[in-house]
Amino acid sequence: MSTATLSFAEIKQRVSIEQALPLVGIALKKYGLQLRGVCPICKDGGDRAFVVTPAKGVYYCFGKCRTGGDMLTLVSRIKNCSVREAAEFIAASVGISGKRSEAEATVPRDSSPQPLSGKEGLKPLEYLLSSHEAVQALGVAAETCGHFGAGFAPKGIMRGRLAIPIHDRAGTLLAYCGRAVKDETPTLIFPSGFRPDTVIFNGHRIEQGDTIYVARDPLQVLLAFEHGVTNVVSFLGDITVDALHVLTVLMDEKDVPSIDLI
Ligand SMILES: [Zn+2]
Known about the structure:
The chain has helices spanning 8-14, 17-23, 71-79, 83-93, 133-137, 142-148, 218-226, 241-253; strands at residues 29-31, 34-37, 50-53, 58-61, 68-70, 151-152, 162-167, 173-179, 188-189, 212-215, 232-234, 259-261. By secondary structure, it is α+β, with helices and mostly antiparallel strands. Strand 7 (162-167) and strand 8 (173-179) form a beta hairpin. The longest helix is centred in the last third of the chain and has 13 residues, at 241-253.
């Protein structure tokens, strides 16, 4: 096995992200299907801001990093080295050897696009651009846009923003919110008449019995999803009494045992 050529994919196949964590001194606690702890990179966001989803082999940080990736990305960020050096470090640490294939220069990203569920009330906007550069600059890939039905709006009232569909708990499309793509203010805009504190974004996708992260910005939900974390919802504006009520109803309905405000 010593002279075999090990690709990034092979290393990831043979070493799990859970096995890699202790190699770089990361100890996390198990919460359901996730492992959580302090972010070893930015140390920001509290003691559950860093989340690893072993089933998908990826991590995400809700703290300052606001990004994530696979095991190789994680090790390279912690050791401040290249992804290739991270791969060699992991391989050496667990006793597998071989040179990485030159052909495999990029780290595959976990993305499993799923169509938006079909029970819309409002008609989805057909003209949104899922692969617009302004959206990519936010760190949101086209596949993630596809999953959420979001995209850059070249026209309409959300023009120049990332339009993100908002659903009620039953999955009915209610409206779109427009998320700033640079530093436009306000960060979120809504159609007139829509009350953002009556909905918890992404609540309809939460699985029964899941613990959930509650963010302040729907963009966090998209970024986390991109890195394997699917149990995230967000407020769409100020945390009013009404917004807290909606969150409580969601928690009751989905049997959510605990939440983490991030
Ligand atoms: Zn971090």
